[in-house]
Design goal:
This protein has 323 residues and is an all-alpha fold. It contains 13 helices and no strands. It folds into two domains: 13-244, no CATH class; 247-320. Helix 1 runs antiparallel to helix 2 and helix 1 (13-38) runs parallel beside helix 9.
Length: 323
């Protein structure tokens, strides 16, 4: 996501294509996540190992290419004006992501996601553009593997979680901390410097990517920042509309209510038949009274709390009074 090269140098098509592949993969993952979130499918990609690996590979691709692009853009010396211009664009996009996800889900909003990491790692990576190559490679390895051996509850707190050495991650939809991900950026820096030192970069530069697929991916790669910011609001907006029109959203909400109610009821009442009847009664009364807004409001008024308490008491009495 950093500018690939000075304007006087041709862009390396292979890098744009790689970035295009990563952005397509990101769209696929978010589409699957949206389908699960809105109730179109019954699986959770965040709990499926193949999908978790897929998501980590996507993030790793963006972070690795950040290091590669830093080297290609500043191999003849750091070009400060283009660097800070690009940094401002990425940091601004990261802020938009934070604001948008906070409005969508305040408890799980993205405060140090992919774009935040790319912005910070770009600044940190400048220090390693001229460092001894073996040192860069060794430090990359240390940063990547250190979380396997070092973990503390302190880093599970949101204020320190961007470091990454937690034992339990904090609640957020996306978190790309320094450990291990800055090590991946350093890996990209080391790989690009190694390629430039030999003839690998020259061979890559000869690849023109003239096929229609290559041209499309290359174009997507050049616009990856805009696509990254825009694609998820578009996807979730369109799919939410489809869910509302098709009734999937209401069915999903009812299923979630029953599952949550029965789990909560089971902790205090071991009779499963009672819990099933009690929760079904509660759902019927919530839907009949159109009380979803009150039920889902995290800051309910006293009147709303009284109405919901009365509802639950009535259902409990009704179920207990059955023969």
């Amino acid at each position: 996501m950093i500018a690939l090269s000075p304007a006087s140098r041709p862009r390396i098509a292979a890098i744009d294509i790689a970035r295009g592949v990563a952005i397509v993969a990101m769209i696929v993952y978010h589409f699957a996540w949206d389908l699960a979130f809105l109730g179109f499918v019954d699986f959770d990609p965040t709990q499926s190992l193949p999908w978790i690996v897929f998501q980590k590979a996507i993030v790793g691709s963006f972070i690795f290419l950040t290091g590669v692009s830093l080297v290609l853009a500043h191999r003849a010396g750091i070009r400060w004006r283009p660097f800070w211009k690009r940094f401002a664009l990425i940091a601004g996009a990261a802020i938009l992501v934070s604001l948008g996800t906070y409005a969508f889900s305040g408890e799980h909003f993205v405060y140090f996601g992919v774009l935040h990491a790319i912005a910070i790692f770009s600044v940190l990576g400048l220090a390693f553009l001229r460092a001894p190559l073996p040192l860069v490679g060794a430090l990359a390895l240390v940063i990547i593997v250190l979380p396997l051996f070092v973990a503390s509850p302190v880093f599970g707190e949101r204020v320190w979680s961007w470091i990454g050495l937690w034992d339990v991650p904090p609640p957020t939809e996306d978190l790309v901390p320094v450990f291990p991900w800055f090590g991946v950026t350093l890996g990209g820096i080391a790989a690009a410097r190694w390629a430039l030192a030999g003839d690998v970069a020259t061979r890559l530069a000869r690849f023109q990517g003239r096929s229609s697929v290559s041209r499309v991916l290359s174009r997507l790669g050049r616009w990856s920042l805009v696509i990254y910011v825009v694609h998820q609001p578009v996807l979730i907006g369109v799919l939410s509309g489809v869910a509302m029109l098709s009734g999937v959203s209401d069915a999903r909400r009812a299923d979630n209510f029953l599952a949550s109610c029965e789990a909560s009821c089971g902790q205090s009442a071991p009779d499963q038949n009672y819990c099933t009847a009690y929760c079904a009664c509660s759902l019927d009364r919530v839907e009949a009274g159109n009380l979803w807004a009150s039920l889902e409001n995290p800051q309910r008024t006293d009147e709303e709390n009284m109405a919901l308490t009365e509802l639950t008491n009535q259902c409990a009495a009704e179920v207990l009074g059955r023969p």
